[in-house]
Amino acid sequence: MTDTSPTWHQMLFSAPERREELLWVEREGPDRYRVLSVPVWVYGVSLGTRVAAVSQPEDGPNLRFSHVLAASAGATIRFVVPAKTQASRVYLDQVLPRARQRDFHVGPATFLDPRLVAFHVHERSAWRLQAAKLLDELVNAKVVKAWEVGDPDAYPETEEGSDEDEGKGSLLTHPLPVDGESGQYLSS
After folding, report:
1. C-alpha angle with apex 99: 75 to 34, nearest 5 degrees?
2. What are the sequence ranges of the domains in the chain?
3. Which of 12, 22, 44, 129 measures 20 to 30 Å from 50, CA to CA?
């Protein structure tokens, strides 16, 4: 009989633009895992997404993402703030309170300060109805420079030499998930 007790592992996710992300996952069965981190660069995966893995015998993480088994109930949204603005402050001071006022649930979040935050929206339908409207208001107020949906969207086309080139060929390693008042994850 195979041991299916839940354990936490790091799993390597690769994005087409050569960015890699090492997310935390919880084992749910043989080669079946639930994502525990809020992805920053990877599209099509959110906190709670069920994924399949393949083992990697070489050095590095022993698990590599294979494919999605079941979508998350929520969604991943990320935003970039203007220069000289701290993204985590915008999330904590603007996004969280306004989401609470509008009675939709967000968090946890991954802060890639100073300029980027990726956050989880608990109900997938809420990103279109509520989160998009909130973030559009923050863009109009010039508090947020731009935002996008990382899941349920797929990989967008990127142009050579665009802002998307920042971080290419790099690995973002997520720390262990931490429960806190805002339920946030911190990355640097």
Report:
1. 25
2. 8-70, 75-187
3. 129
Please tell me the distance from the alpha carbon of residue 143 to that of residue 90, in angstroms, as a whole number: 7
Listed in order, strand segments (DSSP E) in the chain are 8-14, 20-29, 32-35, 50-55, 63-70, 75-80, 106-112, 116-121, 146-151, 171-173, 185-187
Pick the closest to residue 170 from 45, 40, 25 (CA basis).
40
pTM: 0.80
Pairing mode, strands 20-29 and 171-173: parallel
For strands 185-187 and 20-29, give the pairing: unpaired
Q: State the first-to-last Cα distance of the chain, in angstroms, to the nearest integer.
A: 40
What is the CATH code of the structural domain delimited by 75-187? 3.30.70
CA distance 117 to 144: 11
Q: What is the mean pLDDT of each run of 10 residues along the chain (188 residues)?
A: 63 85 92 94 94 76 88 95 95 96 94 91 87 95 94 61 46 60 40
DSSP 155: P
d(CA 16, CA 42): 9
Residue corresponding to tokens 């997938």: 124
Per DSSP, 157 falls in state P
